[in-house]
Specification:
It contains three helices and 21 strands. It is mainly beta and 303 residues long. The protein folds into two domains: 180 residues, Glucose Permease (Domain IIA) (Distorted Sandwich), CATH 2.70.70; 96 residues, no CATH class.
């Protein structure tokens, strides 16, 4: 039996507490942290916070930037940054805030499945009001680039932080590491092919569920595993990225270890699922398909 990333379900339970005490998440850059905290900063793989194929400069200033190690995303060539759509670089729980004319201005913090965080600041608009939270998948739209707060020109201020709030001074996005003093052009692969599906996995599964894992189905779709810490139930949904609005072959399945498999398969316009099963403290096999492209996990997420 292969067991992968058992911590993910436990941290899903922690997200509910984080949403109720959001202020505790906004830790000062000066907060102390152990070496283990620092080592965990990049446990999540991050994509660019912009639309598919968009290229922008990631500028990690070598002095005078607060906090040290944060990235300013800026215009590159014909791609102008002002007004650009901002997307989550990885899945998690997003909290929206507004500091007015100081510091971050309108900004979003996302807490990811391993407790690490990303921040997106100086936004012109946000998809939720200050104080609200929402579950996001990688690529979920959270706002647009602007110049609110302590900003003298439109850009996106971006940070990657450990679970204790320590800023990673060499953040990695799209597999590109940008250390202090470096400026690199980074092309986005975020939401390639899937940005137009009007549904999200949390909308399909319903209240109380949060994404704990996901797998790409090439460029034609993505399948998601969600979990409700309140009920101990799992939920699988497959979103398609092609032939949207036209029925075509899509499937989603969920199989608790030692039990039968439940599958939803048919010709659907936007998604398959939700497939829900109660399986607390039980490994599950999950996956789905769009057309001939499919994914099947091992038995995992056992806690």
């Amino acid at each position: 039996m292969s067991v992968i990333s058992p911590f993910r379900r436990r941290t899903t339970k922690q997200w509910a507490l984080a949403a109720m005490a959001a202020v505790a998440l906004f830790v000062s850059p000066a907060a102390s942290a152990t070496a283990a905290d620092d080592a965990g900063v990049l446990a999540i793989s991050h994509k660019s916070p912009f639309n598919c194929s968009k290229t922008f400069y990631a500028n990690n200033w070598s002095g005078g930037h607060s906090p040290n190690g944060s990235i300013d995303w800026q215009s590159y060539g014909s791609d102008a940054i002002n007004g650009e759509t901002v997307r989550a670089t990885a899945a998690g729980t997003a909290t929206f805030d507004n500091e007015g004319s100081t510091s971050y201005g309108q900004w979003v913090q996302i807490v990811h499945s391993d407790g690490t965080r990303t921040r997106y600041a100086h936004l012109a608009t946000m998809v939720r009001s200050p104080g609200q939270t929402m579950s996001v998948s990688q690529g979920t739209v959270i706002g647009t680039v602007g110049s609110t707060g302590g900003s003298d020109a439109p850009h996106l201020h971006y940070e990657q932080r450990s679970s204790s709030g320590v800023v990673d001074t060499s953040p990695t996005v799209e597999g590109v590491t940008v250390s202090v003093g470096q400026k690199k052009a980074v092309t986005s692969t975020n939401a390639c092919g899937g940005g137009s599906n009007p549904y999200t996995p949390t909308e399909v599964c319903g209240s109380g569920y949060a994404v704990v894992d996901e797998a790409a189905l090439g460029t034609v779709g993505r399948t998601y595993l969600l979990y409700s810490s309140g009920t101990g139930s799992n939920c699988v949904v497959t979103l398609k990225y092609t032939s949207l609005g036209t029925p075509s072959a899509v499937s989603a399945f969920l199989e608790p270890e030692g039990a039968s498999r439940t599958t939803d398969s048919g010709s659907y316009s936007y998604y398959a699922g939700p497939v829900k099963r109660s399986a607390p403290n039980t490994c599950v096999k999950w996956g789905g398909s769009v057309g001939s492209t499919s994914y099947t996990s091992p038995f995992e997420h056992c806690d």
